[in-house]
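Model it.
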Amino acid sequence: MSDILRHSNDVAFTPAVKAVQARKGSRETYAQIEQRGGWRTEVDENLAAFLAETNSVYFATASAAGQPYIQHRGGPKGFIKVLDKYTLAFADYGGNRQYITQGNLSENPKANIFAMDYAHRRRVKIWGEARVVDDDPALMKSLMPQGYKARPEQVILFKISAWDTNCPQHIPQKFDAADVAAALALRDARIAQLEAELAALKGQPAAAP
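Modeled.
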């Protein structure tokens, strides 16, 4: 972290934010959280497990002038790796070659990872500082999901400043197509099994699938 924060959630709760919280009546609640230590700053079992099931995140950066930019990053579940209790990393695949994120990080390392779990209506926000690594083939190879058909171009290293979860309010429940297909396949297999058992009880051959 380039800035010294009194509380970990000061990464988001600037004086201007705290002034609005005070005006709208929520500052006392968040002050109590700060007194208990603030937001979490290390990867724990819960965050590691969440990321292990994550296949889609939004990665936010900003230019030196403060112009924000949000880019989607995806891959197989667990494509974001935990290197240590303070560091996340992922292989950054080739895309449309605009390089807005990379340009932003070259002049402003502050970044945010926003991860959604629609199936369980959960979300995680991770603040930190990120940098691009494009001269470490061994690291890139270690982060590339096995068998995934994408061209890795560089690595994003993300140092965690703080992270927090949100309540599930207003999160629509959605499911990945692959998970739905797997659930339907299990259902169909169970139906076929029950039909075969029923036919056997009746002394009749089971219907062809």
